[in-house]
Amino acid sequence: MSGYTTKKLLLFILVTLVALGLKAQNHDTQTEEKIDQTAFIMGHIRDSHTFHICDVDGHAVGVSLPVILISHGKLITFMSGDFHHDNTGSHVVEKDGQSFVLYFDGFNEKIYQASSTPNEDGTYLSRDEQGKVISYTPLDFSITKNVVTLIMVVLSMLAIFITMGSFYRKKENVEKAPRGIASMFEPLVVYVRDEIALPNIGEEYYKKYTPYLLTLFFFVLFTNLFGLIPFFPFGANISGNTSFSFALAFLTFVIVQFSGTKAYWKEIISMPGVPKPVMLILAPVEFLGLFTKPFALTIRLFAAIMGGHIIILSLLLLIFMFKMWAVVPASGVFIMFMYLIEILVAVIQAYIFTLLTALYIGMAKLEEHEEH
């Protein structure tokens, strides 16, 4: 990014923060209503069926996304903008003879089958004696904002690496120094291959797993960065979602287990040289360790990205809490500092996730080498 482009970006962020400060100050002169800080933060980091942009006269303005449901064996599709607020404040829609309600359970949005009449709490949901929602839940295959951002990540990666591949497929370019986008990403590709895959998996097997490690590294890196650029209002908290991090950790878990040698499994079930009474204690611990590794991968990525987003939004809330435009410069400086830190964290987390995956694969292969 050139210096001129960076200056324009910083100026845009500063003007945006000043506008937010003036808006907060005007809001204070019109009403004493307090902002729900938890709702504000969770509303921006959770997945959603709509890309929310702003509120105009109390009405949300955003980009509607497709809602795809399978309810009672029937495929039902409509746009999220069809959800409307009725006089009870619920988000309901009627489609193909069925009614659905969009419900916020604190962190996530869920779609339930709507009751025919509103309940005592003003919603169209059935609840048990403890207040838990027991309404019918259709299968939800909707295109949420996280899914849209993931599609953008995949398309970006395809565009970049197909371009790189076409460059290197030409024989006359094999011995040439990379140009353009290839010059930017080739050092990262070489680093993952030579500094992560080779030393941790071994010379005999590293080529087999390098494509997966490269895909994993760049996929995590791109999703982390797409969650920050731009962060507000279209940012999607993909990596800070346990569903995303768990899916990647589960893939690593499956690959590691299928890569395990006989010696690897022997070390878990019956460690050589260890008395059998002791193995009665160690074997369950070793077996449990198979599942703690993907759990650690899941939580590490989720917590690091989620925490950074919460901090940035909390700093942004300072403008609305103090409701003074004079707070904008201080808040803006801290936000920009955290923003740079988050970019660094995005790279580090992609590196750590890939490194630990390579270590786990190497552990599954290393035992066989030691036995020989």
Description of the structure:
By secondary structure, this protein is α+β, with helices and mostly antiparallel strands. The protein folds into two domains: 66-142, no CATH class; 146-371, no CATH class. It is built from nine helices and nine strands. The chain has helices at 3-30, 37-45, 145-169, 181-201, 206-226, 242-259, 262-269, 276-322, 328-371, and strands spanning 50-56, 59-64, 66-71, 74-79, 84-85, 91-95, 98-104, 109-113, 139-140. The strands form three sheets. Strands 5-6-7-8 form a four-stranded antiparallel sheet, with no helix packed on it. A hairpin with a 4-residue loop joins β7 and β8. α1 (3-30) crosses α9 (328-371) and α8 runs antiparallel to α9 (328-371). It is globular and about 65 Å long. The relative contact order is 0.12. Mean pLDDT is 78; it is low at 27-32 and 368-372.
- SSE run: HHEEEEEEEEEHHHHHHH
Approximate strand percentage: 5-15%
Give me the number of helical elements.
9
In the predicted model, the low-confidence regions spanning at least 5 consecutive residues are 27-32, 368-372
Average predicted confidence as pLDDT: 78
> Radius of gyration, Cα only, in angstroms?
25 Å
- In spatial order, strands of the major sheet run 5-6-7-8
Instruction: Classify the oligomer.
Output: single chain
